[in-house]
Amino acid sequence: MPQSSCATSSTWRRATAWSGTSASRRSTAPPTSSSPSSRRRWCAAACRSRRRCAASPRRRTLTVLLLYGAIRRLHGAPLPLALACALFLAWGPGFRYAELYFATPFFALLGTAAWALAYRLRERPESRRLALLFALTCLATGLARPEGVFLSLFLLAAVVFWVGPRRALGPAAVFAAVFAGLGGLFFLWRWSYFGHPLPTPFYKKGGGTLHWKSLRASLDGLIQLCLPWLLAAPIALRSRDALRRLLFSLIPVGGFTLLWVLLSNEMNVLYRFQYVLLPIVLLSFPDWASGLAADLGLPPLAALSPGARRAAIASGATLAVAVLAAQAVLYRPQSQARDGRYDAARLLARYSSRGYTLVTSEAGLLPLYSRWHSVDSWGLNDLEIARHGLSQGRLEREHPQIIVFHAFRSPLAPGAVDANPDWARMVAELTSYGERHGYVVAAVYGHDPYETHTYLVRSGSPDAAAIVAGLRALDYHSRDGLPCVNFALWTYARR
């Protein structure tokens, strides 16, 4: 069972897109029960998507092996250093992403491959074959995730910085031809198929404004993921050549970090949007450190006395073990916590053949496992709501049987204020609609009264009483596995 609803929503979006019933086209997902063949296609697509996510551990392993090989081949780094970098990546958050069914390791694999090719290209910019391979790998990175296009541009900018504009004309021309040709064809097909040029979440998360909290989160992610290696960056100040090598890698790292000021920070679980920077930094570090001993006038290890050699090896090994141990503890695998939304979805699945509609801000576990005709009230999977927000008119058209939303208040704390005003407006719209149409407050589950999941059920339908009773009988837990209280019973026990 997935730990996080937001993790599963990515599975939902991929499944509906491949089944031809994309939420961005239909504004709802999954398909209604009135179309059994469409539902079968959707379920099959969801299973294929889950299998693709289950392949994430293999992709993480491939990224680790690619990183180790690239460090050894590109930089000629000693085996202990290459092994330390590879283990730091292996014991990072990649396993947790796979555990949560995110495809983040695949994007990181492509980004790492593109960065390794950028290192090769900076040494041989005249090679057309290498320029084509670099451009195609960058295109694959952009197809894996839209922000991969910008990452690819930053990688190309680093190559231009290193070799100079004149020598970079050939690689830049090949890059432009590949992106304008193959990338342009895909973009036009996607626009024609979905009816809009960008993925639906970009319309919701962009908003035409700068998101300074997202920028701070992006910086926090870079620091948390790469802190030991960033602390070593000042070693590049020892010489002009070392500083140039550092600036070469800072172009994609800094550019990609700053990019996130353009989007809000929803679903950035464990800083997964910044994870691709970790292998990029790890692959870059040996380049910064290259020639360090010679620049500082330090004798080679073999020239030291036996005692000094043992002390140097012990010091380096102790430092490496401490850093790797901290990494392993920070991102240790966790058993997947019980989540009440999954239990609620399994309950609602009993009524999936009734043709009911679910409107929810938790557009992940609930739609996926309930198999209800569903509407994402926040809009990450719904183009109309993403562009114009949730409205009473939209709710009237959907006529939902159940409304579920995540709020930061409860009957015991009705005056609590959500820090996100847009989210608060969505909750107000859902609450107002429920009150005007006589919905039963079946449950307000929360571990504390300041963060809850509210379940509203339309009264009058044949299954309303059974659904209300079933929701109230759940042994509900938060997404962190903490037991929850139904605060609705404090106020609505008479119902």
Characterization of this structure:
61% of the residues lie in helices and 6% in strands. By secondary structure, it is of the alpha/beta class. The chain folds into 2 domains: 266 residues, no CATH class; 156 residues, no CATH class. It has a 6-stranded mixed β-sheet with strand order 2-1-3-5-4-6, sandwiched between helices.
Features:
alpha/beta; 23 helices; 2 domains; disordered N terminus; 61% helix; single chain; 495 residues; six-stranded mixed beta sheet
Please specify the SSE layout and strand pairing.
Layout: H1 5-18, H2 23-26, H3 36-54, H4 56-75, H5 79-90, H6 94-99, H7 104-123, H8 128-144, H9 147-163, H10 169-194, H11 200-206, H12 212-231, H13 240-259, H14 277-289, H15 292-296, H16 306-330, H17 340-348, E1 357-360, H18 365-370, E2 373-376, H19 383-388, H20 392-398, E3 402-407, H21 421-436, E4 440-448, E5 451-457, H22 464-472, E6 485-486, H23 488-492
Parallel strand pairs: 1-2, 1-3
Antiparallel strand pairs: 3-5, 4-5, 4-6
Helix pairs in contact: 1-3, 4-5, 4-7, 4-14, 5-14, 7-8, 7-9, 7-14, 8-9, 8-10, 9-13, 12-14, 13-14
What form results from the Cα inertia axes? elongated
Strand order of the largest sheet: 2-1-3-5-4-6
What structural category arises from helix and sheet content?
A: alpha/beta
Residue fraction in strands: 5-15%
Distance between the termini: 32 Å
Number of helices: 23
Q: Could you name the ranges where pLDDT drops below 50 across 5 or more consecutive residues?
A: 1-50
Mind telling me the C-alpha Rg? 26 Å
What is the average of the pLDDT values? 85
Task: Please give the largest β-sheet.
Answer: 6 strands, mixed
The domain tally reads 2
Helicity level: 55-70%
Q: Output the helix-strand order.
A: HHHHHHHHHHHHHHHHHEHEHHEHEEHEH
Total DSSP E strands = 6
